[in-house]
Amino acid sequence: MSTIKDVARVAGVSIATVSRVINNGPKVGDKTRARVFSVMQELGYTPNANARALVTQTSTTIGVVIPDLTDPFFASLANGVDKVARANNMQLLLSTSLLTAESEMQAINLLLERRCDAFVVHSKKLTDEQLIDLAQRVPGLVLIDRQIEAIKHKCVWLDNAEGGRIAARHLDSLQHENFACITSKYQIDDPAVRLNGFAKELTQLGHHLPTDLTIAAEPNQQGGEIATQQLIAKKKPFSALFVYNDAMAIGAISTLEDNGIRVPGDVSVIGFDDVLLSRYSRPKLTTLNYPIEEMAQHAAELALFNRDKPNTQASNDNFIYLPRLVKRESTAAYRK
Amino acid sequence: MSTIKDVARVAGVSIATVSRVINNGPKVGDKTRARVFSVMQELGYTPNANARALVTQTSTTIGVVIPDLTDPFFASLANGVDKVARANNMQLLLSTSLLTAESEMQAINLLLERRCDAFVVHSKKLTDEQLIDLAQRVPGLVLIDRQIEAIKHKCVWLDNAEGGRIAARHLDSLQHENFACITSKYQIDDPAVRLNGFAKELTQLGHHLPTDLTIAAEPNQQGGEIATQQLIAKKKPFSALFVYNDAMAIGAISTLEDNGIRVPGDVSVIGFDDVLLSRYSRPKLTTLNYPIEEMAQHAAELALFNRDKPNTQASNDNFIYLPRLVKRESTAAYRK
DNA sequence: TTGAAAGCGATACCAT
DNA sequence: ATGGTATCGCTTTCAA
Fold this sequence. Notes:
Largest sheet of chain A: 6 strands, parallel
Helix content of chain A: 40-55%
Strand order of the largest sheet of chain A: 2-1-3-4-5-11
Distance between the termini of chain A: 76 Å
Strand content of chain A: 5-15%
Oligomer: homodimer
Number of domains of chain A: 3
């Protein structure tokens, strides 16, 4: 692969001049510029971004840490960051973190070594302390889907509790009286927060969520199916079901219908996340929209901004997003 | 951010020694090694991957070009490459190409500038000539989902025609006699090849695919719905429907059922791709599995291999994958 | 076992 | 308008 020196030699100019041509620098003679260009073409010259990063101290990359690309939720997250990268002529460096704290840390370290200009990190396993330490050392680092008070100006997150409350209000407004709930068995605290918001608001509204009608399962379709079977087995009446996420909700619906329970005729079901799936299901799922792509864009822009500005952490900003109710077909008014 | 010099200075050794410690080099005194390590810790030293890439001439990155991350198909592709990257202690550099030839080329160029060690490129817009030229210049470049004879040892692709044939055989084996088809209106040639394989095989089997029962639409759920409406409007009988992809197939099913046509009772529907969706739909979709993640892994490994080996292009290898029929619930035997 | 120094491929400042 | 050169942070001989 040819270098700037090769181009300079063939074109009969200095590397300084070639550099100017590459970067559309000022003051280059028209003839010279043309000649250099044609040599670049001829040699198939491509500037070396690593060398450039070394001297300019900017890598024009944004790093993203997510557990896994195949989850559409994280793919949307990455996509949001990619949009910002494109808009700034930068590129996405992806670091998947799988499930352990160790690999989350390693994923971040790899990005650090690349000297990314900005970092959007989704971490559930690292401790608050580890992340605070990191955030302090790295200006352009922003956490997404995590709320840490000490560095809240570097956290972009969703108000999960409010999501639970919105669901409660929605079902209440449909005159439901008997509630049930399916949650995730993984304690990464989102499930608990959502459920808590839901239960509290229900109480506020004068209802009651029976503890034995709250089932935890794997947060996927099959988990939803299993949890629903357990729910049905309780033989206690319920007409409104709040489910941890859309995949589980779809599983729940299919099990309900397999048992002759109509949705939303007999039971209203509400999911969470508003992933693609929810629009394809039948009945189409009522759910809470999680604007992850928008949040990711915001996080990326914030990270980029922080990198340039020194410590603006005096800022009192709070980057909380609210889930939005998307009424589709799986919830309806209660019929006695 | 501290550099190797800082570490050397504080530790009272030369940068050469620090370098040896970083890379677990041989011949370093135990005391020295320990001291250097502790200084690295103390200073929060992180080696600069760009500088390292410059001198070693390897970036330990694999570049991927895909149109868009939000399409689960491409997310799976990227995930396959990421697996290989992880396995080799490398990282994923992502370059999204959107839709135009220009931006596809630009996406590739950006990766070239980064001096990725390997490249997995999904390109539908660039010409054969452009890609051949590229493949010749860049040893570690492999095309995925594209078949170009001149560089077939650098192409990993799926036999779409065979997919069509498999679908035809499946529906024939279920005693169907009247066929219809929904295809994509975008001529990136996959649709035509699939359809062609389907129609040809049908003819082989003594059937006939009426041209007016072949409808083209947008390759998404809504497109599937619209096409199905048009199909129904023809008022010609059909009991077997081959659809370009799963999203369209799910749209087709919902429109059929909205019109009182049961799936698979009245009409059998078969999709293509086997994306997540197909397992969540009701009835669960019979489809053709497109092993894109596996193909992507293969492509990445091939790219890595080619980078090391010089020109092994004399190799007569052919990297064709076959789609696999996944029977679920949307197809059934024809009932008169 | 350790250090000095060349060099990777660019940029940018200082001359001319 | 153009060239010379120090420099970015690191690896890697070659000497000591």
